[in-house]
Amino acid sequence: MEGETFSRVSFTGEAVDMISSLGRRHGPLMFHQSGGCCDGSSPMCYPAGDFLTGDADVLLGTADIPDAGHVDFWMSREQFNYWRHTRLTVDIVPGRGSGFSLEAPEGKRFLIRSQLMNEDGTDVEPSAVS
Question: If DSSP states are collapsed to H, E and C, what string results for 103-125?
Fold first, then answer.
């Protein structure tokens, strides 16, 4: 996010492999997480620009991923209000996600793993969470 010196979003190696594969087929990519129920709470992968973002969305971060380019990760502003104190890791697991997300035909789905963080971007120690 603008003005921050730490990353709010990262990707597991397995997620990077899938994103690279999808990038070779679809070109530059983007992610959006809306915070809805069911599949809407999963990060959705689209060709860059296919999901229109606006004032109701927050750009959490960007990653340069081989064969997929400059991949932006967006979240709805309403959802960000709940997740603002977490660092997100995009992972990929077996299973069917939404038919709109590019990985769905692969029999896999992206998901978010989260870690509480302090305002300076450092991880909250597990013993500090009650």
Answer: CHHHCEEEEEEEEEECCCCCECC
